[in-house]
């Protein structure tokens, strides 16, 4: 065998080893890509007691339930606090994998989203300035101005009954802005989920607000994903939620913020 042939054989051998190594690396990369996905999950940025910032960290019922469920079901996620109005568009445009944001399960939302089992039963309340004596319930809303948060059950109720009651609607991006509008007398009343306003009045002794009348309806909050997408994440949420209710962790988390 001459020197040229020997070099050729060595080159072929080196290339073969390189190809085999490359195949092994590809398999490893594929396995890594197919490993545990890190989900992007939204919460409402300002929706105490479900999600709110305190001391540079987010806390609340939604935030802590999600954390406990993720630990039970062993999945990772990045929490993305944002205005509620942007959450459903974020889900339907695939920018978000899921959302836990005090989101009422409605037939309209089911057209574009899939929901978990209900994780909290809520209801809608009429809230006025504490010095307001003219509104004592739903029968007193005729020709009044109302503050609502975009995309919520409160805004839908106001929109559906705008003509019936002659309402004047003012839209806000978050709950604190709604509260301020009524406290300052800029609008006559606001529509808010009962547990949210009840918590506000419990922790804020300076609030110039009061709840009037009975709750208007009862709705379930649900964890949401885009319709037909992330069924695995939805199953993990449901499985984890069931475990938390069985082991007492659910009651422990909710009980920190809302009395039974």
TrEMBL record:
Keyword Signal: yes
Keyword 4Fe-4S set for record: no
Domain Ionotropic glutamate receptor C-terminal: 38-260
GO CC annotations on file: membrane
Keywords: Signal
GO-annotated molecular function: ligand-gated monoatomic ion channel activity
Superkingdom, taxonomy of origin: Bacteria
Solute-binding protein family 3/N-terminal domain boundaries: 38-260
Signal peptide: 1-21
UniProt-listed InterPro entries: Iontro_rcpt_C, Solute-binding_3/MltF_N
SMART domains per the UniProt record, alphabetical: PBPb (SM00062), PBPe (SM00079)
Record PANTHER family: GLUTAMINE-BINDING PERIPLASMIC PROTEIN, MEMBRANE-BOUND LYTIC MUREIN TRANSGLYCOSYLASE F
This protein's name: Glutamine-binding periplasmic protein
Organism: Clostridium chromiireducens
Organism lineage: Bacteria, Bacillati, Bacillota, Clostridia, Eubacteriales
């Amino acid at each position: 065998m001459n020197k040229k042939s020997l070099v050729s054989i060595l080159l072929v051998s080196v290339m073969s080893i390189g190809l085999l190594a490359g195949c092994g690396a590809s398999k490893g990369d594929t396995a890594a890509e197919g490993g545990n996905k890190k989900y992007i999950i939204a919460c409402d940025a300002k929706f105490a007691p479900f999600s709110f910032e305190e001391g540079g960290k987010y806390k609340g019922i939604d935030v802590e339930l999600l954390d406990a469920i993720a630990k039970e079901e062993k999945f990772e996620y990045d929490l993305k606090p944002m205005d509620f109005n942007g959450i459903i568009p974020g889900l339907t445009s695939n920018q978000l994998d899921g959302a836990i944001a005090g989101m009422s399960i409605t037939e309209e939302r089911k057209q574009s989203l899939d929901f978990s089992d209900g994780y909290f039963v809520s209801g809608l309340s009429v809230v006025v300035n504490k010095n307001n004596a003219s509104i004592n319930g739903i029968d007193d809303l005729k020709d009044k101005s109302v503050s609502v948060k975009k995309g919520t059950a409160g805004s839908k109720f106001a929109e559906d009954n705008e003509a019936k009651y002659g309402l004047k609607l003012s839209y806000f991006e978050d709950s604190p802005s709604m509260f301020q509008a009524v406290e300052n007398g800029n609008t006559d009343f606001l529509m808010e989920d009962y547990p949210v306003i009840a918590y506000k009045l419990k922790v804020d002794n300076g609030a110039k607000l009061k709840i009037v009348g009975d709750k208007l309806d009862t709705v379930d909050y649900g964890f949401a994903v885009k319709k037909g997408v992330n069924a695995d994440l939805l199953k993990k949420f449901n499985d984890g939620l069931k475990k938390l209710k069985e082991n007492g962790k659910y009651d422990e988390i909710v009980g920190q913020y809302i009395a039974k």
